[in-house]
Structures are given as C-alpha cells and as structure tokens.
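Marked as duplicate of an earlier ticket. Keeping the data here for the record.
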Amino acid sequence: MTFLRTLAATALPLTLAIFSQGVADAQEASPKVALETSAGTIVLQLEGGKAPKTVENFLQYVKSGHYEGTVFHRVIKGFMIQGGGMDADLKEKGTKAPVVNEGGNGLSNKKYTIAMARTPAPDSATSQFFINSSDNLFLDRKNSQDGFGYAVFGTVIKGKEFVDKIESTKTGVKTDPRGIPMRDVPVEPIVIKKVTVL
C-alpha cells in the first residue's frame, strides 16, 4: 500500500508536468496575435502545426515591429483586405528572404482566414498578408490555376466586424513613390498601429 501511495504521489506531479507541457506546446503551435488598427483590433489564431514556416516567418515580422505603421494598401469588397508591406505613402518596407509556400497544408481560403500574399512566383511571400472577406476557395492549392495556391496560416477569432469595416471602406487610385498608380487603395489610410503576440 505504501508503495502504491508513493507511486501515485510521484505520478501526479509527472502527469501535471506532462499536461502543462502539452498546453504550452499547443499554445506555442497556435499563438494568438492582436492587430491593433485604426479601424479596430483584430485577433488572429495562428496555425503553427499546419503552416510552421509561414507562422514562424509572420511572428518574426511581428516581434521585430515591422508591421507597425504599415497600412492595408489593397482592399477589394467581396474578396479580401491586404496589408503588411507599405506605409501610408505606399512606400514598400524592406523584408527578409521569402518563405516557402505552404499552400498544401489542408487549410482553406475561407472567409476570415489569413493567408500570405505573394507575386506570381510560388515561393515569394515575405511580409504581406491578406484576410479573406469571402470564401475564396479558388485560391486553395487544389483549385488554383498555378498549382501552388496561397498559404492560409490562421483565422480571425475576434474583431470580424473590423474586417468587415475595412472591407467596406471607400477606395481609389493612388500613386506610389515610384510614380506607379495603385488601384483599390483606401482613400483614408487604415493603419496597423501595433501587433502583439497574446
């Protein structure tokens, strides 16, 4: 009996330690990030288990302060809101090396998911991202024309009304510092003030 009590007493702390480690691992794999914007705060739940390289890349930009002062520079109603790479004057910020495209991770470009923006080159995503404001399943790898798709890496879990607000903002054509006209730019800049890991 004494042996069993000793075993139970030893096992309980070990079980709690394993449980705590499991919770910590889950939190690390699925961190929450708050995007504080001039339109309101949007909270994201990231999917590090399914898009590890993409989430790591995004968090590096978050922790370096890269996103602070950037704007949602491309907004198309019924499609998506894009930001993370330009300031209010549409000057593009410097970035790190591109991240590999994890578009085949099983996550879908459904409404209120966040995905990486990129050029026509599949592995060209750096800091820019977009939040789907509609079910854009044609952007998923299995449905995409280029066979690569756009990598989803999280979901909006709070502040969906602010995604809707940004999506509904008035847009127009503005010229970037290079003299190139850009379409679908919010008339009143929607600024990302601060981004934090919760």
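See parent ticket for discussion. Residues 1 and 46 are 48 Å apart (CA to CA).
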